[in-house]
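Q: Here's a chain of 395 amino acids. Please give me its 3D structure as tokens.
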Amino acid sequence: MQFDFDTPVNRRGTDSAKWNVHPTELPMWVADMDFKTAPAIERAIMQRAAEGVFGYTTFPDAWYDAYIHWWRDRHDFPIEREWLGFAVGVIPAISTAIRVLSEPGDRVVMLTPIYSAFPAIVEGNGRISAEVQMLRTYEDGRPVYRIDWEALDRALAADHTPLMIFCSPQNPTGQIWDRGTMARIGALCQAHGVTVLSDEIHSDIVMPGKRCLPFAAANEVNLGLTATFLAPTKSFNIMGLKSAAVCAADPGLRGKILSALGDLAGANAFAAPATIAAFTEGGEWLDALCAYIFRNKARVDEFLASELPEIVSVPSEATYLMWLDIGKITGDSGEFYQYLRRETGLYVCPGSWYRGDGARFLRFNAACPRSLLEDGLDRLKTGVRKYEAEHGITP
């Protein structure tokens, strides 16, 4: 089946958080795709809407089966039904887990740079973000990240450190973790009595031919000490339907989180039908989407090499996000993103939001029709050249 990812969808004036910008601006910041969702999901939502009654909702067997089959077939992760529970979103669920699995003042370890919401919810819950900055090196002129194992061991071993937040695939870098790396992290967490909260929300957006193995699926040790947070929402661009799942093999860990979620776990009337449709009928659409996205990402790299060689991306095999190294232009991504937005209307994320070494990076969303991507790249070039001229920087 052919799917149309080239035709732009006009989202202005639709109460879109992403597109609530000035008419001249082009938003390429938040992790929200500018594509219509899979046709199967549209049909499921329309069918549910036609019923006309939207009362309290339960979860049919088909919801559990959809998760089980999808994660077994796509991710080699054999989930059992009793491991699963509904959540309205990954971030609310992780925030709840932080509150029930730690005490105020406790430390929560994370590898940075990392998705900005994680330090925010840790600190918002009165805990301490114990950040372990990954080591950045360069291979063939492009930045590559590796774990600082000694620093991670020290962080996990510190007093009052019950939790680690793990992001797989890594956001913002798009890195897919290999089994050996995840097993080594799991061994350290086991040695220091640390529970892992693993965010897997981007794990379906992968380069064709690649697979993202969940942290809990690396081995039995990881399985026993991990709560995994799953969702169809990023993969199928249905974040507004508020649908996710908590998965934990350990009954004590699972029980604490799901009990604490309580009323927060109540679903809207469209969450289950959309999830079932996504995981049972959306595979072909998703494969086509991933192929399109990674052609877009390749186009960005091609453009940078020919037009803006002072900017390079981190090689990535997952997510529709790109982590762009602007260190040859500026070490202040916060100031630079504001400059780009003001001078060209291009709205991207400053890497400083993601902690670690993010002050020299921008996060760029490539999940859009090619025409919008080309517009964004042209704006980026215009802004960079103007900034360099004003600051006496030689390209």
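Q: Can you summarize the key feature?
A: The mean pLDDT is 97.
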